[in-house]
Amino acid sequence: MKRIHSNSELHQKRRGIAILWLIIWGSFFLTFFCVVLEISTLWQAQVEVQNSLDAAALAAVKEWGASGSGSTEVPREAGVAYAAANPILGSSMMLMTNYDPSDPMNNPNQNLNCTGNFIFGALTTPTPPFTFDAGESAATSVGTVFMEIVKNNSGNAVGVRDIGVFFDDGGANLSIRSIEFTIPILGNSNPQQPYFNATLGSEPALSTAFEGPDALNRNNPTGFDFRGLDVDPNLMTGNWYCDPTAPPFTLMGMNTNPDGDICFEMDDQVPFGTNRYRTLIVNFTDGAFVSTMDPATTDFFRFGVSMNQLNNPALPPANNDGESWNLAPVSVTVTFFNSLSMTTSTATTSFVDDGDPSNGRSIATLSSIGGIPAVRAQATVPVQGFCSSMFGISFLDVTAKSTAYFDSATGRPALVHVENEICP
Questions:
Q1: Least buried of 38, 170, 403, 422, by fewest C-beta within 10 Å?
Q2: Residue 383 belongs to what H/E stretch?
């Protein structure tokens, strides 16, 4: 006998099927909602982590470049502070400095390891494709300076066009504060050492007259042996000395010529004579002697000094001419001033022969050593989404990195895309 289902039984079955579909579709929609929500959270976290690392890298490299690319401790702390100021999903991102001050010879940028949050290094090329090298020294504290002496005779008269100094390349905030020319101690058995003369009538002198464009002034179209500098002498004293009252004219590297950007002083007196010094110092007003980074327009000047006894017996077979400067050799120390960081830096080189040992010419080139200062900020941040937090799990991580470099020409940092990375 066939059983007839009641309406209540049919209703219960339909309700059971509806609940089953609700469970199935509800689980599907809940899963879909969680996936969308987690992806959205992950995307937001990725953007915020990238922005935070961009800010950290820019802050760190700006601090480093402006300070002359010296110690990285303070720049790293600046990067940490900027990262913390840019929260990730409402929480501050706390990075580590990755700082290691030991072994500066083999670790010039003071990186603790290659996996830390901040890697300091340098871009090894000025144009794409860029390579970031954490083992390469960076330099913004010195520029490229070319110096020459062209002196064909053995006399000790002051030739105002003999010596030229050209500031070929340097950052926008970099100027030359002073240049020291030093004659080494020669012929120790001879009590009379070579010297620069500071007696009246033999003072160092600048070439300020119109000479016409020629090789000595790099065919300067103005026809003068200087450019970019105020070369008016101190009319109160009639000479170029920083302190005209008494030798050795030492004024702690400050230019005290009230009418121009240049003045001279002498230091390190040699025995057996007065007004005789081993070191000639040329001082400049801060911010006056700068570079346009173009040899055709950069600042330069020419001058002369009375040079004595840079020959036999102290220096055989030199003849007190331009060649003797590389035979000695005469050394040069340039002090730079960074107007942004208010710091100084020095670099030293020596005169060498220009390739012709008999033309009375010696040259010295002081070049910026190192690549373009750059900082890579990198981090992996765990992301806790709404659904994952409900279930007590956290399996989402966001990884990002950012590289910024310091443009010494403008004094500003900028982000850069790096194709190759080297971290020894």
A1: 422
A2: strand 372-383
